[in-house]
Amino acid sequence: MSSKLGLALLHPYFFLTRGMTLGVRVFVQNSKGEILLVKHSYVPGWHLPGGGVDHGEDVETAARREVYEKTGITDLIGLKFVGLITNKTVSVRDHVAYFQAVTVESLDDKITLEIAGARFVAKSQLNQILPEETLNSLKQIDFDQVFENSVS
After folding, report:
1. Distances from the Cα of 86 to the Cαs of 10, 53, 68, 92, in angstroms?
2. Which DSSP category does 20 fall into?
3. With contact defined as beta carbons under 8 Å apart, do 47 and 134 qualify?
4. Where are the domains of the chain?
5. DSSP 87
6. Chain-wide mean pLDDT for the chain?
7. What CA–CA distance (Å, rounded) separates 110 from 90?
8. How far is CA 122 from the centre of its chain?
9. Calpha distance 46→131 (Å, rounded)
10. Dihedral sign for Cα atoms in the order 124, 79, 49, 132
11. CATH placement of domain 3-148
């Protein structure tokens, strides 16, 4: 399924079936200070790992589950909430909770139907790698502060 077609179908589905959507994204930092990114099979570009919060699931559990499902990483040291944004590209009812954590685990390099790749990148590269809409969304939280307060 092409990424534009997939998004064109997915967004109206969530809009019609859910009063509000809640997602999570996690800044996962490794021992070198690099940040974990994933590449989805259905949308172009690299993104912070994350996804939707299931009905009845708390956001911290969702953050841990989504990182595991996308990368195989289970040990998120110092997982901490850093901000909540409204994702206006979907609707004003779509919210994303951001977390930060550190890991000493290696990536699971398996490719799945959802994930085409995962890698750690230098913080200095994020402005060139992350999509513009993600960078614009991150202006709603103190993006630089997230890294200054990272657990080492």
Report:
1. 18, 15, 24, 6
2. S
3. yes
4. 3-148
5. -
6. 82
7. 29
8. 16
9. 7
10. negative
11. 3.90.79.10
pTM for the predicted model, two decimal places? 0.79
Using one digit for the tens of pLDDT, what is the confidence trace for 132-150? 878 877 777 776 666 665 5
Choose between 41 and 101: higher pLDDT: 101
- pLDDT at residue number 48: 94
Q: How are beta strands 35-40 and 46-47 bridged, if at all?
A: antiparallel
Tell me the three state secondary structure of residue 127. helix
Please state, in angstroms and rounded to a whole number, the distance separating the CA atoms of residues 122 and 34: 5
Q: Give the whole-angstrom CA distance, residue 138 versus residue 89.
A: 13
Length of the chain: 152
Tell me the two tokens of residue 94.
Answer: 């779509």
- Cα–Cα distances in Å, from 74 out to 27, 59, 96, 105, 117? 14, 16, 21, 8, 17
> What is the pLDDT, as a whole number, of residue 150?
52
